[in-house]
Design a protein that fits this description.
single chain; alpha/beta; Rossmann fold; about 35% helix; about 25% strand; binds adenosine-5'-triphosphate; cell division; AAA+_ATPase; ABC_transporter-like_CS
């Protein structure tokens, strides 16, 4: 699903992380933790080809990202749902149009009831016709998650998807990701929230990857 082979990254000021090799299997569930600035967002960007590593190889969904043509990269990205830390929307489209966009732009069918169910699940039923600039930070995060999961992606990469949410809504969104994982989607969530990780571990076989000392390691069972 995701294979990193001796991956290092450096933005120009010295290595952020070095010689990371790991394999995340199909249908797996991982959290990505570590101090602020350790490289969690960078890692996620490497996994969907927004960044190329300074050294090493990243393969996603069976293909080496560094060898892909633009068309192959676009095709691969259609199978990856991404929740960015700074959620961007098309501000002239409504929330429901934004959430449905990954389906409509790829010619896939979108039923009104699926969209209504999903918006209801993330607590945005009443904001379906709103424009994104009128949403709060937490509402934007929820819309961003809905947009990422609507295609039932093979892989979901989520960068602090619950950062602006209260605990009840965080649990609700986590359960949405757990359900998606049960249907086969591999999930990687970058988070600082240890309570979220503990909560998840009660529902799913989640592993924790931790950045420490310029390395990325599987954390022990202590969490
Ligand atoms: N485009 C860039 N150019 C130069 N430096 C960058 C760039 N993007 C990120 N960095 C730096 O790389 C380091 C890692 O950033 P990254 O966003 O991956 O960390 P993070 O672990 O996700 O942090 P946080 O938990 O605060 O979101 C930071 O020091 C950041 O300033």
């Amino acid at each position: 699903m995701i294979v990193l082979d001796n991956v290092s990254h450096d933005y120009g000021g010295g290595p952020l992380f070095r010689d990371v090799s790991l394999r995340l299997e199909q249908g797996s569930f991982h959290f990505l933790t570590g101090p602020s600035g350790a490289g969690k967002s960078t890692f996620l960007k490497l996994c969907y080809g927004e960044l190329q590593p300074s050294a090493g190889q990243v393969s996603v969904l069976g293909r080496d990202l560094g060898q892909m043509t633009r068309d192959q990269l676009a095709e691969t990205r259609q199978r990856i749902g991404v929740v960015h830390q700074d959620c961007q929307f098309l501000d002239h489209l409504t929330v429901e149009q934004n959430v449905g966009l990954p389906l409509t732009t790829t010619g896939r069918e979108l039923t009104e009831s699926d969209l209504t169910d999903l918006l209801g699940w993330v607590g945005l039923g009443e904001h379906a016709k709103a424009l994104p600039p009128t949403l709060s930070g937490g509402e934007r995060q929820r819309a961003s998650l809905a947009r990422a999961v609507i295609v039932a992606p093979t892989l979901l990469l989520a960068d602090e998807p619950t950062g602006n949410l209260d605990w009840e809504m965080s649990q609700r969104l986590l359960m949405l990701m757990v359900e998606l994982n049960r249907m086969g989607t591999a999930i990687v969530i970058a988070t600082h929230d240890m309570n979220l990780i503990r909560f998840a571990k009660a529902h799913v076989n989640a592993r924790v990857l931790r950045f420490s000392g310029r390395k990325l390691q599987i954390a022990g069972a202590e969490l």
